[in-house]
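Q: I'm a student working through a structural biology exercise. My instructor gave each of us a protein and asked us to get a predicted structure, then write a short paragraph describing it. Mine is p-loop containing nucleoside triphosphate hydrolase. I'm not confident about reading structure output yet, so if you can add a plain explanation after the tokens, that would really help. Here is the sequence I was given:
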Amino acid sequence: MTAPPEKHLVRKSFFGCNSAHGFHCFFDFFHDLTDAKITIIKGGPGTGKSTFLKQIADEMRNQGFAVEQQHCSLDPDSLDAIIVPEIKAVVTAATGHHVFDPKHPGAVDEIINLGRYWDEAGIRPHGKEIMDITAESDRCFGRAYRFLAAAHLVRTNRADLATAHQDFSKVNALYEALCADLFTGHPLADAVGPERHLFMNSITPEGTVSFMDTVIGPSTRLVLIHGAPGTGKSTMLSRLAAKARSRGHKVEYCHHPLDHHRISHLIIPAMDVVISTDTLKGLPREQEHDLNAFLKPGISTKQGEIKSDDHHYDAMIDAAMEALVRAGHTHGKLEQYYIPHMNFEQVDRCMADTIEQVLRHAEKYHAFTRRSPKKVKELC
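A: Happy to help. First, here is the predicted structure for p-loop containing nucleoside triphosphate hydrolase. I'll explain a few features afterward.
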């Protein structure tokens, strides 16, 4: 299977995010699961799940497919899932904070249990140590989530202040201007376009990490919308998304890492348009708009509150990072009880078999799409 050079590009995202509401995942791979294949990998720490996923991703790229890598929010260098959109195939780990079970077992989903390849007799004597480490790790995660919840509450103070002083007539005028610019020539469709929800940013022990650079190409129209919390950024993106979907376009909602109810980025793949509320330094942008410019002069009397809230917000985020570092370090101790008792030769054979199954699915899927009047990109 040969593909043009751009098909080898890797897009990155996050499988889930540490947030003010705890750990949150969307488990959102495709809007239509017809003829999809989702392989769910189960297994303990150190059983080879991330390596398994990396090698499958490499093989699929070698076969000419574009791959989306979904990374771990606790360790951004590790993978939690790979997606091959062209053939609607997913291989994902489903353990720890992101446990999930098949919705359509046998029809769409398959489970691979790497626990089949460990020596339980070698692990069981360490049961108390494993349970103690797990309890301490969970405690550290809880501590991190409470700090993030506090940061979110402080941010709400900041947002309420800005909202009370924002001139939303000017925000609405900007919205109308953006609609005219982006959607002129895109008529209303007879069906609403599909949507997908994911994280392109995540709060990690290394700080807030973004993969937005992996979705912005040389021809992408990048529109930046800046502004303090409460100035209308997320609402603006939601309204623009609704406008795009009314034109039949698929929309990808990239949610805010602290609060998944808000939108940080909007991707409209068919139009090659990205609308972002981040600075995205180093990336060429077509337009840039600052909603702070519409704030009424009265907000200048509240600078003391703003400075205080910003200070407390930063302090809570820093404390959350420290707790996440401790949680990650503690969780990593579990690997010492699994790695020595794993049969990695069997894991490698399982991985090779999984790759073969995905490639067989690709052959069947391409046969299906040749019979179908729909384009592959419309199915993904």
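A: Here are two points you could use in your paragraph. The first helix runs from residue 49 to 62. The longest strand covers residues 37-42. It's a good idea to check both against the output above yourself.
Q: Great, thank you!
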